[in-house]
């Protein structure tokens, strides 16, 4: 089926939970889709709350990409179980409607005696918004023949390959859709996850999920990862729109027109062998990273944001040639266009069978071009000394969709409409 | 809820009722299961006294919604609503009488209910959040042991779309479908008795191949009666109980019935060791058959069961918790869908005018059934652990969606007082 026309028809034939339609009516008012599920229950208008502390939901780009990492996150990959393009369209409408409501906050639709409550209540009777961001992406597998999208795949989007030091577990890799929920509080993240899952059960099923957190500055600067080092110090300044356009956002060029305003999203689930790491001398740890553990400064500097002067140390006497920061970002004219935007979170998920702590990094990064940026960096890092202490076992390549511009717009409109 | 209808006395058991169904397993686990099964629907949850009302009045509402204070008593039911508006809003219901009350916001012309608060204790205030469009409304106050009183009709002007509402279902409404369903179950028990007799005969003569063949049809007949288990009482545990997870629990003499026999048939146990369980199963089923004409199903359970059958399927079959070796969890799931359809068929005349999502519910049933049927090849069902990733995801998606579509059924068929 390739019917993507007429959202009125779409909604009448809807297959997802009715409560979504209730809240979705807000979008429908502006979007012209007024024919809802044929019931009086369909036009609920949750009262809007003041915008949260995070980015607003509407814009040319999705929120949750250039904004700073938040304290709590859930990253999920989904398999789409929608039967055809019409159902996929309904699914993305529903995700949009839920995300719009959850990020803005407000009173959940009262359903009276016609249904169980439309909200779980875990955030109280009125949703606070709470700076929640919802960031959705599409994986290469969505562009197979199921939805008639074979000719719309973003140019660089492929199935994430296994890199030199990877130990990928298929159950933790890839997926048709990605969804990252981030907020200052874990209850806000989990409430949003529960809400979106409830409203989309028929259309998508989680393939894998990793919850994460970021730490407050200890004592200052960039948050630290489980290895004790600051993670993301050298990020480009994407508050400068020119830098963001150069590094993060896909614009015109050879890409399909629908992709404008999106960004390539890479997620890597990286187990960190923290017990092993803790038995390594500080000097060796610091030489692996090329930075001081305490301050985050490059080994040739004294403060976190000092710029390493690799050219003055051509043989790596101070910052080893195979250190992480030197391989990842050699800071030469030739490698300048491989810079990317890191948005990493720590994860912690209990114990491993051998009695070790099961913790690591949800490495998320955004870029304009997968090959030119992430893959190039990853190839430079092949065999770095750090690989003995980490094990990438999952993740995937996704394309973060263009932003939802206004109440009439929806995630994936330019792809599907 | 106090819903004793005038002029109706037993055979139907007196409300309150609507106990949640929980599959019971044997031995130590049974205690936990029984405790979990007691989920009372009626709790007078009011706290605090009259001072609460005054405090609520004094504070500006933190929820940003329009609040209206409403009086609840026989003489003043619904008073306080002087400036009607459309939209999402809160009515703060204050019971000024000396008895607990149920309060409904109704459309007096159609009888449809837009919101309800049950068990409003004397002197307490509780909020009712509703979304109202243009139309006429009246509060209905139903005090315990008193006739219902309907307050003044209030008109919301304009052309705003109406909020979600449904006509209440009372015990009278549910008696015909309950009787019809009970009759259908009686026919199934007769079918089951023939099947368990055959299974017992197979085992008695030592033909375990025939027993393995005849076990499934018998078990599936039982699994189609999902809405009646509660009425079966202890017989349900004897016929279809499962063992605790503790080591050796399968050898517990209290582990009996279909799954005990399944365990033996698919774990190389001797015919001799299964004769006792087979005889006990057949005996329990025949006892059920003999006693059924005297049983009375609880009408208040009808709507609950319509969604709980599939809740159980998801919890026990899709996890293979109840698989003792036959690998037929999906066959059971399929039989549970039949059972859900059987009860929905009886409820349909009442459901159709009340559930705006009924077309989606029907579609979800069709879709889930088709997904399961595609997992049966040459008469053999795929076992849950042999599902491919894609099959597993589709099964999860279809059952997840079906359960969401069934949730309104339980809400709509909660038995309500109407007079």
Automatic annotation (TrEMBL), chain A:
One of its GO terms (biological process) is iron import into cell. Its EC number is 1.11.1.-. It is found in: Cell envelope. Keywords: Heme, Iron, Lyase, Metal-binding, Oxidoreductase, Peroxidase, Signal. One of its GO terms (molecular function) is peroxidase activity. It catalyses: heme b + 2 H(+) = protoporphyrin IX + Fe(2+). PROSITE patterns: DYP_PEROXIDASE (PS51404), TAT (PS51318). Its cofactor is heme b. Pfam families: Dyp_perox_C, Dyp_perox_N. One of its GO terms (cellular component) is cytosol. Binds 1 heme b (iron(II)-protoporphyrin IX) group non-covalently per subunit. Its main location: other. Residues 222-404 form the Dyp-type peroxidase C-terminal domain. The keyword Lyase applies. PANTHER family: DEFERROCHELATASE (PTHR30521:SF4), DEFERROCHELATASE/PEROXIDASE (PTHR30521). Involved in the recovery of exogenous heme iron. Extracts iron from heme while preserving the protoporphyrin ring intact. Belongs to the DyP-type peroxidase family. This is Deferrochelatase.
Automatic annotation (TrEMBL), chain B:
Keywords: Signal. Belongs to the EfeM/EfeO family. This is Iron uptake system component EfeO. The lineage of its organism: Bacteria, Bacillati, Actinomycetota, Actinomycetes, Kitasatosporales. The keyword Signal applies. Pfam families: Peptidase_M75 (PF09375). Residues 8-17 have a biased composition (Pro residues). Residues 1-21 are annotated as: Disordered. One of its GO terms (cellular component) is cell envelope.
């Amino acid at each position: 089926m390739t019917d993507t026309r007429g959202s009125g028809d779409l909604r009448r034939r809807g297959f997802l939970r009715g409560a979504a339609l209730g809240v979705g009516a807000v979008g429908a008012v502006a979007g012209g889709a007024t024919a809802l599920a044929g019931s009086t229950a369909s036009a609920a208008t949750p009262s809007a709350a003041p915008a949260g502390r995070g980015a607003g939901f509407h814009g040319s780009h999705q929120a949750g990409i250039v904004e700073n990492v938040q304290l709590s996150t859930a990253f999920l990959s989904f398999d789409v179980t929608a039967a055809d393009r019409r159902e996929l369209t309904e699914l993305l409408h529903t995700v949009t409607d839920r995300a719009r409501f959850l990020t803005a906050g407000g009173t959940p639709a009262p359903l009276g005696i016609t249904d169980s409550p439309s909200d779980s209540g875990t955030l109280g009777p009125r949703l606070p918004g709470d700076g929640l961001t919802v960031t959705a992406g599409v994986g290469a597998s969505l562009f197979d023949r199921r939805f008639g999208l074979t000719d719309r795949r973003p140019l660089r989007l492929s199935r994430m390959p296994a890199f030199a030091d990877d130990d990928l577990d298929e159950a933790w890799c890839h997926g048709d859709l990605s969804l990252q929920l981030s907020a200052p509080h874990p209850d806000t993240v989990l409430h949003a996850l529960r809400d979106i899952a409830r409203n989309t059960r028929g259309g998508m099923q989680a393939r894998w999920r990793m919850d994460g957190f970021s730490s407050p500055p200890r004592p200052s600067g960039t948050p630290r990862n489980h290895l004790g080092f600051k993670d993301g110090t050298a990020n480009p300044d994407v508050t400068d729109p020119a830098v963001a356009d150069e590094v993060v956002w896909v614009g015109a060029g050879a890409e399909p027109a629908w992709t404008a305003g999106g960004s390539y999203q890479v997620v890597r689930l990286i187990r960190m062998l923290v017990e092993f790491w803790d038995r390594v001398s500080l000097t060796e740890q610091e030489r692996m990273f090329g930075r001081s553990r305490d301050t985050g400064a490059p080994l040739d500097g004294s403060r976190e944001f000092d710029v390493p002067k690799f050219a003055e140390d051509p043989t790596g006497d101070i910052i080893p040639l195979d250190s992480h920061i030197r391989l990842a970002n050699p800071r030469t004219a030739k490698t300048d266009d491989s810079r990317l935007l890191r948005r990493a979170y720590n994860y912690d998920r209990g114990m491993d069978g051998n009695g070790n702590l099961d913790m690591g990094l949800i490495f998320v990064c955004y870029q304009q071009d997968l090959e030119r940026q992430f893959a190039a960096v990853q190839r430079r890092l092949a065999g770095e000394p750090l690989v003995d202490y980490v094990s990438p076992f999952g993740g995937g390549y996704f394309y973060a969709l263009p932003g939802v511009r206004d109440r009439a717009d929806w995630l994936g409109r330019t792809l599907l409409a | 809820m106090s819903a004793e209808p005038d002029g109706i006395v037993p055979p139907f058991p007196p409300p309150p009722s609507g106990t949640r169904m929980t599959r019971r397993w044997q031995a130590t686990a049974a205690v936990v299961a029984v405790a979990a099964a007691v989920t009372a629907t009626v709790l007078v949850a009011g706290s605090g006294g009259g001072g609460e009302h005054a405090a609520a009045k004094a504070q500006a509402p933190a929820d940003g919604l329009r609040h209206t204070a409403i009086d609840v008593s026989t003489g003043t039911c619904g008073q306080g609503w002087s400036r009607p508006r459309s939209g999402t809003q809160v009515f703060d219901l204050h019971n000024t009488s000396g008895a607990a009350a149920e309060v409904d916001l109704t459309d007096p012309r159609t009888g449809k209910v837009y919101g309800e608060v049950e068990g409003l204790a004397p002197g307490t205030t509780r909020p009712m959040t509703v979304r109202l469009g243009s139309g006429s409304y009246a509060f209905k106050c139903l005090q315990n042991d008193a006739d219902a009183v309907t307050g003044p009709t209030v008109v919301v002007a304009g052309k705003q779309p109406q909020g979600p509402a449904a006509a209440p279902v009372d015990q009278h409404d549910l008696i015909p479908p309950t009787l019809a369903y009970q009759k259908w179950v009686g026919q199934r028990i007769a079918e089951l008795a023939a099947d368990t007799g055959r299974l017992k005969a197979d085992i008695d003569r030592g033909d375990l191949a025939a027993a393995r063949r005849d076990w499934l049809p018998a078990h599936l007949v039982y699994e189609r009666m999902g809405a009646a288990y509660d009425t079966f009482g202890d017989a349900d545990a004897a016929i279809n109980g499962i063992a605790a997870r503790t080591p050796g629990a399968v050898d517990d003499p209290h582990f009996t019935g279909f799954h005990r026999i399944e365990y033996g048939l698919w774990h190389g146990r001797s015919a001799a060791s299964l004769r006792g369980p087979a005889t006990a199963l057949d005996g329990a089923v025949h006892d059920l058959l003999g006693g059924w004409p005297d049983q009375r199903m609880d009408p208040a359970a009808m709507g609950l069961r319509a969604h709980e059958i599939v809740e159980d399927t998801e919890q026990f079959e899709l996890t293979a918790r109840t698989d003792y070796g036959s690998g037929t969890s999906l066959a059971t799931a399929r039989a549970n869908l039949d059972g859900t359809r059987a009860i929905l068929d009886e409820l349909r005349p009442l459901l159709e005018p009340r559930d705006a999502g009924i077309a989606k519910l029907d579609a979800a049933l069709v879709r889930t059934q088709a997904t399961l049927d595609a997992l049966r090849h040459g008469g053999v069902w795929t076992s849950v652990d042999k599902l491919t990733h894609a099959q597993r995801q589709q099964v999860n998606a279809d059952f997840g969606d079906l359960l969401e579509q069934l949730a309104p059924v339980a809400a709509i068929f909660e038995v309500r007082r109407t007079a």
